[in-house]
């Protein structure tokens, strides 16, 4: 489902116009720029809502009818659950588990250098970049945040940094590195199966 249809769902449920909601839904699907299939849905997680979307958009928006709308509800009920047929919301750990194998020595070195260069002096950025590891305990989860796309596209939207304040360099890890070893699993395909996090409750 595309962002316009998600925005139309939000307008029907919450009032106002689709244009009130389109920016939120477009951002959740921003990862389509990196991966053309449904593996792209790494922002279809509570991690992304809490750590990225809400810091960007705030917790409440006032739509064109003048009504206050809970942005977390917009994300979860009008986008994430819809894309998985209202069966579940996957965790970031579900996506990380789909990444085959472990990091290579070169990838580990690149991630460590990335963090040293771009995050060590900024505790807020460092915490955000390390948040996948804090949640999953798996080093390979840092592929989601330690790459050129996350630094140059996501970080400026979440923080007060201007793009001109960010480094322009050879990052060695691109956004597409997230998906190079990620298997396509049935649960990613519009909820045709349950992810590991939801299997024990169904």
Write down the domain tally: 2
Which segments are poorly predicted (pLDDT under 50) over 5 or more consecutive residues? none
Return the average pLDDT rounded to an integer: 94
Radius of gyration based on Cα positions: 17 Å
SS strand fraction: under 5%
What is the tally of beta strands? 2
Give the helix tally.
9
* Global structural class: mainly alpha
Q: Give the fraction of residues assigned to helices.
A: 40-55%
Shape assignment: globular
Strand order of the largest sheet: 1-2
Account of the protein in words:
- The protein has 202 residues and is an all-alpha fold.
- The chain folds into two domains: 3-91, no CATH class; 99-178, no CATH class.
- The chain has nine helices and two strands.
- A two-stranded antiparallel sheet has the order 1-2.
- Strand 1 (60-62) and strand 2 (68-70) form a beta hairpin.
- The protein is globular, with a radius of gyration of 17 Å.
- The two termini are 25 Å apart.
SSE blueprint and pairings:
Blueprint: H1 3-14, H2 22-28, H3 46-57, E1 60-62, E2 68-70, H4 71-83, H5 92-97, H6 105-118, H7 123-136, H8 148-158, H9 196-199
Antiparallel strand pairs: 1-2
Helix pairs in contact: 1-2, 1-4, 3-4
Short description:
The protein is 46% helix and 3% strand. With 202 residues, the chain is mostly helical. The protein folds into two domains: 3-91, no CATH class; 99-178, no CATH class.
Q: Keywords, please?
A:
two-stranded antiparallel ribbon, 202 residues, mainly alpha, 2 domains, globular
